[in-house]
Design the sequence.
């Protein structure tokens, strides 16, 4: 059974400097409010894992939380570059950022392998391309039956997974619905997990017997956080604030405007 | 009707899709082309987005591949690991659309860095789904704007395999999928030579000259003989695309950057 | 888009002597009516694949359809032995039956690998036990990162998968709900697929955006077959006939009573 | 209250489960023991069935591991590949229950064949989930009736690894899970010696003699000193078990064969 905690206490309890942390959510259900709390608590030297480091990691990287990024696509979807990510990689601001770079297929399989208790993931991939030359965590094995060359990457086993979900019940079971991404895998792969939720309800009342549910004993802490995915969205609750994603391009383009925005919108605010 | 070079590019890409295709769709131009095809000549075209949405029928173009509209209008939505395992790697996609910052004459793509990998001049977004889309889909359509910095002699980084650095590596690896079979730009349509796999201009868009294409391609581009002229956009194509873009702009509060 | 066919025509079109055929359904949604049609059409030399060859394969094996069985648990759940399976293995009646024997984990992973386009499946398993000595399709590889010994089996790629589901819509999309077993994987792993359904509806109206649905283009043929899972059950339609499972023990125990039952209940009946 | 040896066995197994356990449940005796525990001292015990049902709370015992009752009363139901990958292999189960046709003194099990594998005298059901349950669960409880043909010196086939043929092989393989820590029969409770891993009688059920246990065990069975006597079934335990069995018999039209 997870602990029900206010978000600041949950971040305080679960996330330590130097941890490997995966905040997941594939466009949908991105745990922005949790990320802001991590920024406010000034966590440092995190290894951040995420398939699509978009605005949420641009903010954390620009705020100086991360020393390494494990990822497969870093951009502002449909808008352009992540300027804070680029500034860290190209100019080392506010600190250098090491990259461990994969493809989406590798990342998705690595989470799935972590959830499965496997040491590594095998898939068809990475043939004839450059990433294996720059990432020693990409290797190849032969199928013992056909001889086919298969790619292999280590399983993701983050210290902490952080996700946002629609609902938790009083017993601590969590329901996800819509675009579910790799969040279930991230939680099952991690040593500890923090789930922020739109609401805590008496019963999940899942729509289907096969609804996507994380049972209570797979979760370390639950923090209520209505709107916790904004400016991302929560299926059934609120829509994506597309204009914020477009505006982020200008806000994040230079260090001063970024810093000002973060001071006003993150550091000056307290989470309930 | 007047039309823009971008509209011509999107329409030419849409025409290449058949009613029986199953498409793995990226954001921006591919999404516009695929949905235009679905709304015109290919109503049964199946669209799959890597966020997990299968057989989706968005009425506006998504700004990101995980927009709520994709899930709401999908037949079903699966997890991302399932998407990459059962659907993409499982060989259930006939056409994958790709783009990138750079393409070479053999359809190899770079979306990783400009400059050296360890000290990049420009850090690009990275591979995303492209690396395995390129090897798992039946064939690959590339859609990019024609520009000398985009159509390069040599990639700064090989993110995504086309036919390989000299056009033979893909075959040598034993891949069973066709790789890039089409490159649509705002100036022309290019197709790989059956033997050398080099992308060759097979059709110029109306009003475009060979010289324009040469000036915007860094390799010594070859023109097929006879060279075709791309059919003009029809009124239906243009109206459908513009309606789609107008609905999209209204829904997002601004036009998506890439359409 | 699949063909909508009456069951006899679908079996006629999809299943050939010598095929490798997987009828799946994990207690729930077992395609009994399809199996009976295969028996009536006197298919021979089939390689039958199934995690839990229970009554449905006991009937097919006793009827002489199979020359090989690929499986992980062959019994009458909660009741006892499968007498026809045992008679084939122990005495070669009505014909010898070759066995390729796995564990459940291997079978489930092999279906998943088949659905994933992989040549083989990797998992943690088969350590220190006897099956690898008697099944050359069980091999071991080392994780290239940790050196851990992992088991590897070939992917299942049956010629035909046969499943039963609750509903298909007019476009040929199929909904499964409840205990979904390995049926989706079996269909995606197979070259051809036959789905019998309780009913064909205008719209699937799935309960959840994440409901288990097989899209039309993954299915070769759909045959309406109300009650097609009996004496197994269909969640939302009818319950399991537990007494038939108990009674099967006596029916199947000797060749004469089995043959008589099959003549009366299978051969003498026609599927609509 | 009077009680049967089977009831004693089921109750003794149920008592070994704690309120914090997550159990991978097989059919028959394990299912009865787990549900009895859940209905008495361990209301938060989590039951997982390999059919995919997670945190299920059946009001009657299933005849098969995929009964509708399991899905209807489950928190959620997942696919069988997910069950074996994310839940069992993922290390999320603290206790796995196993049985078999034969067990040896080191808790290795046979459920494959009696006789030679290639020419069996009796073809048994096979491994099912047992092979990987035995290595993935935190610890294993074995529940079997005491009989010389079941408690054997040497297995005809090693389907499922306990502590290994000589008690050391499990450790040598580097497995991180404990393996069999309990063997409950209709006569006694056996636990592995901490050093040799040989199953040793630590408790006799009320009224059972050492001689009865020896006569029904084919290996030279060792008794712990001091030897315990299993506590009598309580009225609550017996009533709860009988109610469960009565509801089950009514629901199935007949008593399940193994309870």
Sequence:
């Amino acid at each position: 059974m997870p602990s029900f905690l206010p978000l600041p206490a949950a971040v305080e309890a679960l996330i330590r400097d130097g941890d490997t942390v995966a905040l997941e959510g594939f466009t949908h259900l991105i745990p922005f409010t949790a990320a802001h709390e991590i920024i406010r608590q000034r966590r440092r030297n995190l290894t951040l894992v995420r398939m699509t480091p978009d605005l949420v990691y641009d903010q954390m990287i620009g705020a100086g939380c991360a020393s390494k990024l494990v990822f497969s696509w870093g951009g502002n979807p449909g808008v352009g570059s992540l300027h804070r990510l680029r500034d860290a990689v190209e100019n080392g601001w506010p600190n250098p950022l090491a990259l461990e770079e994969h493809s989406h297929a590798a990342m998705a399989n690595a989470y799935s392998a972590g959830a499965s208790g496997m040491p590594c993931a095998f898939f068809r991939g990475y043939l004839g391309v450059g990433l294996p030359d720059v990432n020693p965590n990409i290797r190849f094995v032969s199928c013992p039956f056909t001889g086919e060359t298969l790619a292999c990457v280590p399983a993701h086993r983050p210290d902490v997974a952080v996700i946002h979900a629609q609902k938790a019940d009083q017993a601590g079971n969590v329901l996800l619905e819509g675009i579910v991404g790799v969040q279930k895998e991230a939680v099952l792969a991690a040593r500890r997990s923090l789930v922020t939720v739109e609401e805590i309800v008496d019963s999940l009342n899942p729509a289907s017997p096969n609804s996507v549910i994380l049972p209570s004993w797979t979760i370390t802490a639950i923090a209520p956080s209505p709107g916790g995915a904004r400016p991302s969205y929560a299926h059934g609750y609120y829509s994506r604030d597309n204009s914020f994603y477009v505006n982020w391009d200008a806000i994040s383009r230079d260090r001063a405007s970024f810093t000002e925005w973060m001071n006003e919108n993150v550091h000056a605010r307290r989470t309930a | 009707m007047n039309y823009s070079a971008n509209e011509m590019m999107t329409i030419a890409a849409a025409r290449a899709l058949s009613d029986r295709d199953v498409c793995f769709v990226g954001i921006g131009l591919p999404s516009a082309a695929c949905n235009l095809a679905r709304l015109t000549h290919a109503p049964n075209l199946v669209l799959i987005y890597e966020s997990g949405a299968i057989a989706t029928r968005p009425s506006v173009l998504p700004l990101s591949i995980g927009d709520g509209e994709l899930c709401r209008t999908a037949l079903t939505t699966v997890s991302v690991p399932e998407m990459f395992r059962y659907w993409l790697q499982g060989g259930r996609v006939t056409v994958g659309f790709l783009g990138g910052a750079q393409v070479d004459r053999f359809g190899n793509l770079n979306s990783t860095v400009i400059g050296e990998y360890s000290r990049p001049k420009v850090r690009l977004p990275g591979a995303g789904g492209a690396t395995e889309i390129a090897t798992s889909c039946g064939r690959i359509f590339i859609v990019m704007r024609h520009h000398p910095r985009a159509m390069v002699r040599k990639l700064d980084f090989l993110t995504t395999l086309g036919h390989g650095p000299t056009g033979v590596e893909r075959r040598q690896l034993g891949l069973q999928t066709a790789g890039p079979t089409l490159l649509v730009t705002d100036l022309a349509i290019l197709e790989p030579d059956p033997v050398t796999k080099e992308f060759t201009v097979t059709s110029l868009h109306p009003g475009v000259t060979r010289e324009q294409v040469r000036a915007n391609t860094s390799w010594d581009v070859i023109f097929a003989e006879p060279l075709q002229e791309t059919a003009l956009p029809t009124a239906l194509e243009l109206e459908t695309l513009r309606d789609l873009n107008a609905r999209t702009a209204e829904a997002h509060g601004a036009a998506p950057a890439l359409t």
In short: Residues 180 and 245 of chain B are 27 Å apart (CA to CA). The radius of gyration of chain B is 18 Å.
